[in-house]
Specification:
The structure holds three protein chains of three kinds. Chain A is an alpha+beta fold. Chain A is built from twelve helices and 14 strands. Among the domains of chain A are: about 50 residues, Uridine Diphospho-n-acetylenolpyruvylglucosamine Reductase, domain 2 (2-Layer Sandwich); about 100 residues, 2-Layer Sandwich (Enolase-like, domain 1). The longest helix of chain B is centred in the C-terminal third of the chain and has 23 residues. Chain B is globular, with a radius of gyration of 16 Å. Chain B has six helices and five strands. Chain B is of the alpha+beta class. In chain B, about 40% of the residues lie in helices and about 15% in strands. By secondary structure, chain C is α+β, with helices and mostly antiparallel strands. Chain C folds into three domains: about 170 residues, Aldehyde oxidase/xanthine dehydrogenase, molybdopterin binding domain (Aldehyde Oxidoreductase, domain 4), CATH 3.30.365; about 180 residues, Aldehyde oxidase/xanthine dehydrogenase, a/b hammerhead (Aldehyde Oxidoreductase, domain 3), CATH 3.90.1170; about 300 residues, Aldehyde oxidase/xanthine dehydrogenase, molybdopterin binding domain (Aldehyde Oxidoreductase, domain 4). Chain C contains 15 helices and 27 strands. Chain C has a seven-stranded mixed sheet with strand order 3-5-1-12-9-10-11, with helices on both faces. In chain C, strands 7-15-14-13-8 form a five-stranded mixed sheet. Chain C has a five-stranded mixed sheet with strand order 16-17-25-26-27, sandwiched between helices. In chain C, strand 21 and strand 22 form a beta hairpin. The longest helix of chain C is centred in the C-terminal third of the chain and has 25 residues. Chain C starts with about 25 loop residues before the first helix and ends with a helix. Chains A and B meet through helix 2 and helix 6 of A and strand 4 and helix 5 of B. Chain B: Keywords: 2Fe-2S, Iron, Iron-sulfur, Metal-binding, Oxidoreductase. Chain B: This is Xanthine dehydrogenase YagT iron-sulfur-binding subunit. Chain B: GO terms for molecular function: 2 iron, 2 sulfur cluster binding; metal ion binding; oxidoreductase activity, acting on the aldehyde or oxo group of donors.
Chain lengths: ~325, ~170, ~750
């Protein structure tokens, strides 16, 4: 780790001023930034500790009826919050399928969304093909976004609240990460010194609470990044799908929303054929970035599975093995 | 610049002068405070050997800068046994042979202690499957998994029984 | 799941052996009091961190030594520009366990992760940053990676000095006689030991004497090796390893990083501590080399083997050799009239492989036991029936009887507990309530019952207690407990009257904690030392007219519970303390040693055996696999401590799960680096991967294998376990996995 200065500002204003200084980086849970610093990828000159800033550590309903998760709320606290369990159970399942209990106890909502791809640790090496993208990749970047949380957030149309010198602004999560031409990884839409202060879940997204699942394939049963993951949520009405929300993880530089597949689901009666059609649409445009064509087929199948599980209904309780197809009691049987 | 970090460390108030903000909680414990029971297995939050309890929550000490912890209450493996009497989790690890080389053991035990005492316990209940998932952040390479899980379940039951007895 | 393993009567070897004692070091390990090497920080300690090569082949062009030196707290930067002096060339393979290592003697890079500079600092933080600031540049060459990197060659030896090929009978005749021939290929990847405790050393010099606190599986054997490189007498070196946080074969070999720290401490005149970072454990400290194995099995019409051919291609390094002796696994298990095994090797630009838990047997038996399942299917026989049909009553190559072999009993007991009898022959026919495909698989486990050489000392003390000493190392197998149990029995004392000293090179040589031979070897030496001490004590007593034992010389004496009794009259006895006191001795020392006579191998074949049964659930659409339960039944001679033996056998089975489903080092073809070289990328099983595990042991009375009748269990159960999982996956899905670890894409079709 390089030498750095450390400050712990008492107010948001102080933090923003410090964060605008050259070489400054905000420090929250530290589980990603410290890792990057340890391998020498990040070398901030100033760490601005934002963990104790007032107003960032609560989950609360906004005046508009949306749910605001302060950026400093720890992942484990989000997953166990009663309002999350009741309104956005898919978020809890996604969070609990990620990392370990120890890391979830430290990592914050904001830090999770902002974490850099595993490829950032690779010191210029191309990752193993199986860890690379099959959607939206470029010659310069085939790395994948590592977050589970963000995939579920993307499906729920979450907005990010960002504080800067000019005040607060809101950005849809889906627009937050972009991949400029020639960039080696996706870049968050943050100006210098801006601080992510909250993740906001629109009230409308709670309508899918009864039919929302996050499903994740990984190469050991727990404590592993997603090979492929899917957040699938359905708004059901009279036995038909009123609207659908679908996002994929592990396949692109950002959580991958699938408007065409969602449109195909809207108005349909749930069933294997419609799910298969949606899965095909979800992977439209997918192409191997190496010896990883299998991920396209796996993703297709996982979309169909996730939709089937979502249609069967959100389980009353997060499964023993969250998001795992190998859970002993994984919702209703959905196999073909 | 020297930072002062006030900790309640294993029940004792400590004011620690830190000349380098790079020091992690793990290296502070091991290299500067001679509390070497907490182990370094990966230094990257990937193995759980350094698990300690900070303000009631189990965390990886390697992924926490000491300077950020001013005012925190920290419990390490050295702070578990009281008056020479092992914590029920420690005793259960010995009884169920939930250890072999012993290197991951302090982390496994701290993880289990926090889990039993904290908010997770209610979610897990006595379901071994949920417990295995909850303990998956603590890697054991010797293969003591069966003994570890049995030990935690057993300790949890004993602690609950003892609590009931106390209440009665 | 937690049923106790019954202790058969004969297993008792005195009052202690056979008892399921809890670990005597358990208290220290659960309280954090157990001191591993890196827990030592003598006054004035400096911290060392090395820079690791980011390429696998080429030369270091530049290092920014000035930047490193300028970093506050950096004390020293060692580079090849001023190579540290060694008394012997580290290329010199003067010893069977001497592997070439890299110690800044030149600017060449021959594997990724090789030390290319060492930075020493007043603090760990300073040294770490100093090493980063070196920012090396390279002249890189394209590394050779993979089985086909270049033409294979025929190695002179495999493993540690084993013959690279062996055969009996006429292979082509065996194939010609077969009703059908199975030809099959399996590949296993590079795997890394990844003990939880990283390699470390704390080196303290005092003149020309040095104390090394380090994890070392063979402290006494290592002493002359360090001595040769450091140019000091072996007795000037003290290696202390009271606890070792997992070795698995990687901590018996002198390596560059640890040597550099020792040299830095000498140069700077202060204690130096070096701890490998986790990512640095993927290079200079050994691994299991990748193998590609081709098997050919001839079957007669009844499912009997007519021929068994096993060829292995093993990856070794560019500059040294450890050839994974995988094919040799086919020499000892199945009685085909024609058997042939052979090895080839290919050089890659990787760190030199090393023995890793069951070297040879783990990948070799995995391939063989999968091939045997394929043969069983071809013969239309149940996998268990096929193995019984091809059961070796005597050793397949030599015809010698096994000293003991309860494999049949293991197969029967394991099958019964597992519920194997209901297994349908056809694959892809069983499902669980959720619709997941279920499969049941079997793998036979086998490992040689090794025996090395060891010495021990037992000192009876005036207060009736004893001190027992041997250098042996506890790396989790339970030496602190099991060896003390044996020692106590040798002395006729209860274990609480024994002070057991171990884990230090100034004690009698217990040999290497490895090869699954430590308990048998060191235990035999300890037993002999106790017997020697008691014999001396009995001689004093029986010649002393004042002793109740006077004149018992002819009929003899028996030692138990701290007293010597007349064999012909149990009521006449005297305590050790009284005998010593009257003779005016403060202590009485017995010496013991143990080795297996070479002729023993001409009379018997010595092996442990077992049968591992696994059930796997596989998602039919997605191909994700989970082992849902495993049963292993093992026969390994006398069990000294059933509790610890069970744990070791479980550990090996879990390694089998990792072998089958998780472990693989992925190399970057451009740089040759291990790109998943950390514990987030290199997967080993976590708790959620290990749902249900049952270990059973089958009693074996073995009067031939050694004095104690003890075989080893440290490596036995990984052999067989990986194949059991793979065979279960094949049974579940109808897809035969040929590459390890088994991946989803293989199973989704």
């Amino acid at each position: 780790m390089n030498r750095f200065d450390y400050i712990r500002p008492a107010s948001l204003e102080e933090a923003l001023a410090a964060g605008a200084r050259p070489g400054a980086a905000y420090l929250a849970g530290g589980t990603n930034l410290l890792d990057l610093m340890k391998v020498g990828v990040a070398a901030p000159a100033l760490l601005v500790d934002v963990t104790r800033l007032p107003g960032l550590d609560a989950i609360e309903e906004t005046a508009e009826g949306d749910l605001r998760i302060g950026a400093m709320v720890r992942n484990s606290d989000i997953a166990r919050a009663p309002e999350i369990k009741a309104l956005f159970p898919m978020l809890a399942e996604a969070l609990l399928s990620g990392a370990s209990a120890q890391l979830r106890n430290a990592a914050t909502a904001g830090g999770n969304v902002l974490q850099r791809p595993r490829a950032a640790l690779l010191d210029g090496m191309r990752g193993d093909d199986r860890d690379l993208a099959v959607l939206g990749w470029t010659d310069a970047c085939a790395c994948v976004h590592p977050s589970d949380f963000a995939v579920a957030l993307a499906a729920l149309d979450a907005r990010l609240e960002i504080a800067g010198a000019a005040g607060l602004r809101a950005v849809p999560l889906a627009d937050f990460l972009s991949l400029p031409e020639g960039a080696a990884e996706a870049v968050p839409a943050l100006a210098a010194g801006e601080l992510l202060t909250a993740v906001v879940l629109p009230a409308a997204a709670a309508r899918v609470a009864g039919h929302a699942r996050y499903v994740k394939l990984r190469e050991r049963t727990s404590f592993a990044f997603a090979l492929v993951s899917v957040a699938a949520a359905l708004e059901m009405e009279g036995g038909r799908i009123r609207s659908a929300r679908l996002a994929l993880g592990g396949v692109a530089h950002k959580p991958w929303r699938t408007p065409a597949a969602e449109a195909a689901l809207a108005g349909a009666a749930p069933g294997p054929e419609v799910f298969a059609r949606a899965a095909a649409l979800a992977l439209e445009g997918a192409a191997p970035s190496g010896d990883n064509a299998f991920k396209i087929e796996l993703a297709r199948r996982l979309v169909a599975r996730a939709l089937a599980l979502a249609a069967a209904g959100t389980p009353a309780r997060v499964p023993a093995l969250p998001a795992s197809p190998l859970d002993a009691d994984h919702g209703a049987p959905a196999y073909v | 610049m020297t930072h002062t970090v006030n900790l309640v460390l294993n029940g004792e108030r400590r004011a620690i002068a830190l000349d380098d903000p790079r020091v992690t909680l793990l290296d502070l414990l091991r290299e500067r405070l001679d509390l070497t029971g907490t182990k370094k297995g990966c230094d990257r939050g990937q193995c759980g050997a350094c698990t300690v309890i900070v303000d009631g929550r189990r965390v990886n000490a390697c992924m926490s800068l000491a300077v950020t912890l001013d005012g925190a209450e920290v419990t390490t493996i050295e702070g578990l046994a009281q008056n020479g009497e092992l914590h029920p989790v420690q005793a259960a690890f010995i009884e169920h042979d939930g250890l072999q080389c012993g290197y991951c053991t302090p982390g496994q035990i701290m993880s289990a202690v926090a889990l039993i005492a904290g908010g997770e316990a209610a979610d897990i209940g006595d379901d071994p499957e949920r417990l295995r998932e909850a303990m998956s952040g603590n890697i054991c390479r010797c293969g003591a998994h069966r003994g570890i899980i049995e030990a935690v379940l057993d300790a949890r039951t004993r602690m609950a029984d003892a609590k009931k007895e106390q209440a009665a | 799941m937690s049923d106790a393993i019954p202790t058969p009567e004969h297993a008792r070897f005195g009052s202690n052996s056979g008892e399921a004692l809890s670990r005597r070091d358990g208290h220290d390990k659960v309280t954090g009091a157990a001191t591993f090497a890196a827990d030592n920080t003598p006054a004035g300690t400096l911290h060392a961190v090395y820079a690791a090569a980011g390429i696998a082949r080429g030369r270091v062009l530049t290092l920014d030594v000035e930047a490193a030196r300028a970093h506050p707290g950096v004390v020293e930067v060692m580079t090849p520009a001023d190579p540290p002096k060694l008394a012997m060339d580290p290329e010199n393979k003067f010893h069977g366990f001497a592997f070439r290592f890299d110690c800044l003697q030149n600017d060449r890079v021959r594997f990724a992760g090789q030390p290319i500079a060492l930075v020493v600092g007043e603090t760990l933080e300073a040294a770490t940053e100093g090493a980063r600031l070196l920012a090396p540049t390279y002249e890189a060459e394209t590394p050779g990676m993979g089985f086909d990197a270049e033409a294979p060659y025929a190695p002179e030896a495999v493993g540690i000095g084993a013959a690279p090929a062996a055969s009996k009978g006429d292979m082509e005749a065996g194939i010609a006689a077969a009703a059908q021939v199975i030809e099959t290929r399996y590949e296993t990847p590079a795997q890394y030991h990844n003990a939880m405790e990283p390699h470390a050393v704390v080196a303290q010099w005092d003149g020309d004497r040095v104390t090394l606190d380090m994890p070392n599986q063979a402290p006494v054997m290592s002493r002359p090796m360090y001595a040769a490189f450091l140019g000091i007498p072996p007795e000037n070196i003290l290696i202390r390893t009271p606890y070792l946080g997992g070795g698995f074969g990687s901590k018996a070999i002198v390596n560059g990083p640890q040597m550099l720290a020792v040299l830095a401490a000498r140069k700077l005149g202060r204690p130096v501590k070096l701890v490998l970072k986790r990512e640095q454990m993927f290079g200079p400290v050994g691994h299991r080399g990748a193998t590609r194995q081709d098997l050919r099995l001839g079957l007669d019409a009844e499912g009997g083997l007519t021929a068994l051919e096993h060829k292995a291609l093993s990856v070794t390094s560019r500059f040294d050799e450890f050839i994974e002796p995988a094919a040799n696994a086919s020499l000892h298990l199945y009685p085909a009239p024609a058997i042939s095994v052979s090895h080839q090797a290919v050089r890659n630009d990787v760190g030199t492989p090393a023995p890793m838990r069951a070297p040879g047997e783990a990948p070799g038996l995995t391939a063989l036991e999968c091939a045997i399942d394929e043969a069983a299917a071809a013969a239309g026989l149940d996998p268990l029936a096929f193995r019984l049909r091809n059961y070796a009553e005597t050793h397949p190559m030599t015809g010698l009887p096994y000293s003991s072999k309860a494999l049949r009993e293991c197969l029967e007991l394991g099958a019964e507990r597992f519920g194997w009898a209901g297994r349908p022959m056809a694959p892809r026919t069983m499902r669980d309530a959720q619709g997941r495909l279920l499969g049941w698989g079997l793998g036979v486990a086998q490992f040689p019952a090794t025996f090395f050489a060891a010495a021990a000392r037992a000192t009876l003390r005036a207060d009736g207690t004893a001190l027992v000493e041997t250098s042996g190392v506890d790396m989790g197998q339970g030496a602190w407990t099991a060896l003390a149990q044996i020692a106590a029995d040798g002395l006729g004392l209860s274990i609480d009257r024994i002070e057991f000293r171990s884990g230090s090179s100034d004690l009698p040589d217990a040999g290497i904690a490895g090869g699954s031979g430590h308990t048998a070897t060191a235990g035999s030496a300890l037993h002999s030392a106790g017997v020697d001490a008691i014999a001396r004590l009995a001689e004093i007593a029986t010649e002393d007219p004042e002793s109740p034992l006077f004149g018992a010389g002819n009929s003899g004496t028996v030692a138990k519970d701290g007293r010597i009794h007349r064999r012909d009259d149990d009521s006449r006895s005297e305590s050790y303390a009284d005998i010593l006191a009257r003779a005016g001795h403060a202590t009485l020392v017995g010496e013991g040693s143990a080795s297996r006579p070479a002729s023993a191998g001409e009379q018997h074949a010595f092996f442990s055996h077992g049968a591992v049964f696994a059930e796997t659930a596989v998602d039919p659409d997605l191909g994700q696999v989970r082992v849902t339960r495993m049963v292993g039944a093992f026969a390994a001679g006398r069990v000294i401590n059933p509790k610890l033996v069970r744990s070791q056998l479980e550990g090996g089975m879990i390694w089998g799960v990792g072998f089958a489903l998780h472990e693989e080092a992925s190399h970057d073809p451009v740089t040759g680096r291990v790109r998943n070289g950390d514990l987030a990328g290199y997967h080993v099983p976590v708790h959620a991967d290990i749902p249900e595990l049952t270990v059973l042991t089958v009693d074996e009375v073995d009067p031939h294998v050694n004095l104690l009748g003890v075989k080893g269990v440290g490596e036995l159960s990984i052999t067989g376990a990986a194949a059991a999982v793979a065979n279960a996956v094949a049974h579940a899905t109808g897809v035969r996995p040929r590459r390890f670890p088994i991946r989803m894409e293989t199973l989704i079709g």
